Amino acid sequence: MFAIDIQGLSKSYKTKRHLTVNALKELTLSVEQGEVFGFLGPNGAGKSTTIKCLLGLIRPTSGTATIMGDSVTGDNYRRKVGYLPENPAFYDYLGAEEYLLFVGRIFKMQEELLARRTVDCLKLLELWDARKRPLRSYSKGMVQRLGLAQVLLHDPDVYILDEPMSGLDPIGRALVKDIILDLKRRGKCVFFSTHITDDVEKVCDRVAIINRGMLQVVDKVDNILQQGIEGYDVRTTAANGQVEELFIEKNALQSFIQQSINNQTSIERIEPRRKNIEAFFLDVVAQQ
Ligand SMILES: Nc1ncnc2c1ncn2[C@@H]1O[C@H](COP(=O)(O)OP(=O)(O)O)[C@@H](O)[C@H]1O
Ligand SMILES: [Mg+2]
User: Fold this and answer.
1) Of the four, 128, 138, 169, 257, which is 20 to 30 A from 97 by CA?
2) Collapsed DSSP state (helix, strand, coil) of residue 253
3) What's residue 65's pLDDT?
4) Domains by residue range for the chain, with CATH
5) What's the number of CA atoms in the CB half-sphere (13 Å) around residue 24?
């Protein structure tokens, strides 16, 4: 069973001026349990539209989606998923602690478990000291972290996060990456959208690139990085002690190594020079 299975999902919005925006066109995609999946695309590509369809917040024009085998048109799947919206908004007179208790009761969590999980999540997201302060006094980063605390609270199987790193400083981003990697270790599925390619390279198993509502690429991050290798920066020391730094083309590496052995030249360093995900992403989007 897939954690997330999307089949032929399309969404057209009708604007006030009776124009049609085809925000999503025939998207088909599945994500495994235990997988961290990056959903990458420029602004307006259709990422939030996809996510809102998955959460049943908007109805697709056509197509279907399931989460842990349950259709997103029903209610069964809701307890199995944690959702972080793009711009989380909360009742701003509550404190973080009150808010989490409120959310947990909506999820019908057992009180003792809820009390324990609330403490854990507040500490994990570094909101413990601010837990009694009204949310209106929180910075954007703190609000974002509370959003994540709320996602983790009921320990769901699937995490759908819309731009979880946006609005966070480097320390906050590192914290979110650690949380995602910890979820992966615990066999959870994390599906998150981003337009920041660096996030993808560090934490994702696979990545999809969406542009203008259409899926362009789905591949393993390792494959993309491997295919992006352009050549190798090499440092050698010849038999007479002469040190050289050279660039070897990708397909010339084997013969270079063989030649070095024949010449009794020792190779001290071989470093791949490669395109990162950012360059790959820009290539894919530019081809449109
Ligand atoms: N409620 C709406 N009404 C009309 N058009 C919308 C609405 N929501 C999103 N769109 C349009 O759909 C497209 C995809 O938007 P969105 O899914 O928010 O993209 P992303 O999250 O990738 O930035 C954009 O062209 C956007 O302007
Ligand atoms: Mg969006």
Assistant:
1) 169
2) helix
3) 95
4) 4-89+139-218 (3.40.50.300), 228-286 (no CATH)
5) 27
Between 214 and 88, the more confident residue is 214
Question: Probe ligand 1: pick from 15, 22, 43, 49, max atoms within 8 Å of CB?
Answer: 49
Pocket test for ligand 1, best of 48, 52, 162 (most atoms within 8 A of CB): 48
Measured in Å, residue 237 CA sits from the centre of ligand 2 at 52
Ligand whose nearest atom lies closest to the CA of 40: 1
- pTM value is 0.88
SS3 assignment, position 127: coil
pLDDT of amino acid 264: 92
Contacts of 256 (CB under 8 A, 6+ apart): 234, 248
Of all protein residues, the one whose alpha carbon is nearest to atom 26 of ligand 1 is 44
Percent of the chain residues past pLDDT 90, beyond the cut:
76
- Answer yes or no: is pLDDT of 79 > 80: yes
pLDDT of residue 126: 92
Structure confidence at residue 242 as a pLDDT band (50, 70, 90): very high
Greatest Cα-to-Cα distance within the chain, rounded to the nearest angstrom? 78
First to last CA, the chain: 34
3-class DSSP assignment, residue 155 = coil
Atom of ligand 1 nearest to the CA of 58: 1
